[in-house]
Write a structure and sequence with these properties.
It is built from eight helices and five strands. It has 189 residues and is mainly alpha-helical. The C terminus is likely disordered.
Length: 189
Amino acid sequence: MANSGNPKSRITRTPGLRRGEPHITGRHISVEFIADLYINHRLSVEEIAHNQDLTLAQVHAALAYTYDNLGEIKAIWQEQARLSAKDAISHEEAAAERARLETQLAERHPERHEKLIHLRAEDPQRDMTVPEIAAEFGLTEQAIRKAAKNQAIPARKIGRDWVVKRADALAYWGGQRPKARATTLVAHS
């Protein structure tokens, strides 16, 4: 995407695209994103160009625009931070409402609540903790942590411990994976 001439022609605004914010001409990559990578994440111009499949000229044009319009870029960052905080609050409110409704269900219809708990426990996408896996599959917690650490099973760390999707735990420890073949050593004389 060679674009010779005026560096300002490398930056454009398109109504309806990226909320009308400035972006690389012909691409959906915003100037504020390039500025964030360079200023806040300390990536080099070369790294940004390589990672975003841009030319050095496009990255430099975005940075030139940033420094010419720093107030605008900072305002975009502030708006993004405000929206992120608002999203976090709405997620917290939604979680509180779910908890309230679940408590209400448990009080009014205990049998339905039990069924809900059972369905959740069987959800293949549910994260299981190491103690849950150990209890369900009769394993030691040490063996589970070792499998997670050695990447023998897809797992992710939350805090100091590991969680594994129920489907992955079933596939690995639930008897669905092929057993290792026993090999015998034959002595040659």
